[in-house]
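Provenance and format

Records in this collection were gathered into a single text stream. Each protein contributes a sequence line and a token line. The two records reproduced below are adjacent in the stream.
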Amino acid sequence: MIFLLYVSLLVVLYHIVKKLFSAPKSPNGFDNIPSIPSLEFIWAMFTGKPQDEIQGIISKVSDKGIIKANAGTIAFFYLQDVEYIKQFLTKSEDVLPKMKHGLGNRVKSFYGNGILFSNSHSWRMQRKLNNAAFNRALSHDIIGKNAFKLFNLMDYNLDKPINIYDMMQRTTIEILGQVAFAYEFGGLNSFEIPDIIKSYKYVMEQTENWLHILFPIMDHLPLESNKKYQENMNVFDNFILNLIAQRRKELKYQDKEKSDTTDNNLLSSMLELGEKEGIKIDSRELRDNLVNLFIAGHDSEYSFYARRIELFLPFTLVKTLLLIFLATSLNMSVAIYHLAKFPEMQKKAREEVIRVLGNALTTPTSEQVKELKYINAVIKESLRTYPPLAILIPRQPNDYVQVGPYMIPPDSYTCVNVWHVHHDPNIWENPYQFDPERFLNGEKRHPYSFIPFSAGPRNCAGQNFSLMEQRVLLSMILLKYEWTLPEDSIHKVKFCLDSNFLLKPKDLDVEIQFKRI
């Protein structure tokens, strides 16, 4: 332990000395940007303060549209003014690439170079394939089928409160597996956790370990945790790579047989579209993308962005999906929580669903989903009040970039503070009040005042799928159950969030009491 302490101190000293001797001159205007109190800010992140408390530290500094935050030897610039954000996010992706993931061997090895962190030609190629694949993979039937499985599982436990966040994670991971690569994990068959999910969760837990992120040398020490980490990483990688190999074989067989039938799962679609477009994408790139999707869809512990120095991510189709589906799990939990807290809203939402779908439990069609105006407003208000990403992944400009009166220097870490924008009283009346009606009253706002899926050229490729999934699931749950918030809920006063890259409920727990209608 003493040895590790000495190593840690030496590494910190090295970074401090390096920064002192290599710090660039501040560009015009940046000396006037107010700074967040470093010690208070870092302590709040490392001790896991809720996101609203961390944002409280930020907001009491200044109401300027841009502020600075120092995390050790790393400096971040946060954009908070909607016009600055618009100017920033609409820049070309070549001018404003995603940050380079240079710290942490585990982070780099796990996340790779998927659509989330890739740049230039690699990003454009992946985005083209992802857009086309997502359009083909939209399936109300898969969502509906898994909703019925969810109900079967919930019906066994209606005598006590149910952790709806766990239920939403299980549901989204099943939908993810079938939509992404035509695989069923079995998470809705029982309350047991499938072995592959156990391996994945252990890898994620270790990947996010802040000591390993800040001090990569720890990855090379003869620790039992390093050995176990590598074993679980191999299990997870082999699972993904075997799926890719199987889908490649199936695609080749289909071509050989001149079959007109093509699977609509994302992996098969990307392989087929890549063949047609003459785009070569190797198995490792596909693996990276799948991990992106996997994390978004399921992981609730993807946590080091705000708490652990908000820095990196990186591996390609799996990871994009994971970010999308984790956001879905959180937002569904937020929506269900608020409908429990405000029964009049739940009643109004259910009446709309019955008016559009009828009383019989059924999977809504795409046309019916479009008629669910109030349901859509509830989902949007959930995304506004608790955006899945409090802070967007930092960009590192290749050159000086003009934002308002400021020049952002090249290679700096510049972020968009989504939480601040979504709770700005200059934009939203009573911003901390949950009020779906604000999305129904026709009020005109700045186009960048609501950015839960980012905006500009690098907005979320799967946002339409996520919104469609939420509308279908929420409407079906309203047809099946009524629900209330237990009196002893830790979320009785407010929805309590831990602060992470992707936000998650406190203690991963949102207990709701359900009863069949």
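Adjacent record:
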Amino acid sequence: MAVPRKMSLALAILCLLSCNTLLPSSASSDSFLQCLSSMMPNELVFQQSSSNFVSVLESSVQNPRFVTNTTVRPLCIITASDVSHVQAAVRCGRWNGVRLRVRSGGHDYEGLSYRSVQPEVFAVLDLARLRGVHVRPGEDSAWVDAGTTLGELYYAVGTTNPGFLFPGGACATVGVSGFISGGGIGLMMRKYGVGGDNVIDAKIVTANGDLLHRAAMGEDLFWAIRGGGGESFGVVVAWRLKLSKVSPTVTVANIVKTMDEGVTDVLAKWETIILKPVLPDLTIRVVLQYKQAFFQTFFLGGCSDLVNTMNSVFPELGMTAANCNEMSWLRAMAFVYFNVPVEGLLNRTNNLRYYSKSKSDYVRRPIGKVGWESLYQQWLSQNGNGQMILEPHGAAVGGANTKTTSPYPHRRGVLYNIQYGSNWCCNANDTVAAAALGWLNGIYGFMEPFVTSNPREAFANYRDLDLGQNVIGRDGLTSYSRAKVWAQRYFMGNYRRLAAVKAMVDPSDYFRNEQSIPPLPKY
């Protein structure tokens, strides 16, 4: 049973008042800032009194709901430009009782990388300056700095090392580090696995401020950071990623079907072909909005092969050669991302115009035509701003050898992931916001009979505080038993192992937020 927010907040405040090591005094805050000043350039630290504080705070924000005056704001923002600055921030924070929240791309759906729900003194460690892709022509791996975006990664690989790819997501402004640390699902995962499955090595700054690579951190920690919520265990500063060969031509095809065109029949058929093992080169992602569905097809091959395959397994979609867009993998990723030029993948744009809220689900048995018809009639056709995104799994994601590759647990038997989203203008009144959230909660409730249960699975990269928030125990540590309410939905059977790793590498629970992995208690 989820702990009500008011009760959770009251318990947290009680603990903060009784454990003075968790709530720094003004003297401790001053000491923290003085420590930073002695260990890194002052121009990299933006205090609340700085004229640039707000602009730096908002620089990579993707949901302006969390930069209002009611948000618990950081003591300062540390814009590290070197790994030594990350180490200094961690050590100064530990010595002075100031916690860090780490931000890379800024797509954290609940904003926990730069704000706190509970009253505490904290600093933001912003990694946006730590960005770079170190790749050589012909090599099947690349070192990628933690502040790099997926778009920057795609551009570097596609221009420096054509013929190779990294199987990332569709949104170019997502940070590589956040993508991997939550597992990472994307358009090519049916062929190559999720993002966390494609990490060869990493560099992490631990709670002691030490810099470790894979051999030094050990396989348990290396496993945990590749999908178990990397911010719980330390600060990953770089990833060595596996690159996979790709043919010179890939094909993208976009087809829209409406309710009048029998979209529910097409969706019902789509569900039946996802797990076909002979189709790992084919991904058909679906976006449902209002009275239509947008079928986004991504094929690792040419148009003629795609059309022949589709006519064989999915004729209901009605694909022809006229729907095809043949191009390189790099151009395809730019095409999927709002059809920008490949240079557009380098733009680190943020969103300060629309508020949003998301939720997620997993489906293991087809919903069927009748279910889709009810969904459209009762919910989708009633809100033009709400949407559902369906990401097909199967093939390499749920293969025989992936059970322990990384902590991402939603594998064998999963048909697809669902992301529900509701958006409204930041200038809208409370009635509009309440209606948007009411629609989201309503469609989520409607879907309960069609999705997984015990637990109702959820995706860690689509963080949702409605699932529950951490509570601090009398020992000053995050409660392991209370965290189960949300953690078993994200991580399922991997939760206990993740907590055991946390107890090993960060037993004092320094790296924590409202949905961080707690240390496994010593019974």
